[in-house]
Design a protein that fits this description.
It contains 16 helices and 16 strands. By secondary structure, it is an alpha+beta fold.
Length: 376
Amino acid sequence: MPEEIVDFTQTKLDEWASTTEWAGKYTITVSAMGEGEAATQLLTDVEAGADVYGFAQDQLARLVAAGALSAPGGVFLDNVTNNNDSGSIAAATLDSKVYAYPETSDNGFFLYYDKSVVTDPSTLEGILDQCAAGGKQFYMDIQSGWYNVAFFFATGAQCYYDYDTEGAVTGATCDYSGAAGLKALKAMRDMAANKAFSQSTEADAALFDPNGGTAGAIVSGTWDSSTVSELLGDNYGACKLPTFTVDGETFQMSGFGGFKLVGVKPQTDSDKLTFCHAIADYLTGEEVQLARFEANGWGPSNKNAQQNDKVKSDIALAAVADQLQYCEAQGQYPNAYWDLTKAFGTDINSGKYKDASDEELTAGLKDLEDAIKAAK
């Protein structure tokens, strides 16, 4: 578990374990490990790894391929499929089989906006017009393969990688040079050419400062919620990403969805295996998800927890929850992918494609697609 929830998790598990049929039979020790490091550390030595562990959803395929996950069954599986939102269940599923327990549903990007500038955040075109009218800017990072999939995935384009158990790329699917990718590029090109658009930076949240800030709207995530809400006060707004229209067709902006999952390592002792699944089930249940939200601000994947008044009153969490229904769970991508998509987004921002024909745009997309497929 991440360092910030180790004490919380240990306390909760100690309280819970004392009330179970396994009381006094097993000792539970919670250790710190970032979700992003789980697969790398566990696959070094699966047998010596943690019995129950948290991990980011982009590591699921590697963990399954390495035999490092015992899939939930029976009542545990029922709890996963009946109690969590569809996005988090999809993130825990591979080849139609659920392998892990959803823990959060809160990592992705959405729209923050100043309600005194943007009164209708439903369309990209409207946001740009309203920002221009208010002398403000709309900020988004299209020089990142994490953000610019908001356009590619929206139009129906695909891009993902397959990995083996050692973490090596075994194949890639990318169809950016097709009709869907062309529409996405046209939309990004038009947005980049709009005078009310600005490329995003790390310090964007501060651009909502009433004293000289230039932002009317920003695409970001929950990590900026406290800064934005403090700066905007009563004008603080957040919602799902807008739609955009290209060649007469309207699309809902998409993106990557990020979810935290809890996995159980296979065991030879069936009693211990059941105990480990009971731990994972408890840690991802409604009660603990709500307690974790109140203690650390993690957004629940549990549907009942999401309806809690305190959770629903969190404007940023409500926005990301709404947006996640239009997103795809983020898989694992090699470093080269991020470099390639950054360079491509930089070209868009520089005006390289400003007056390009459809044929020229398609050629640029084909070059990107080929490079992505060749990336390791």
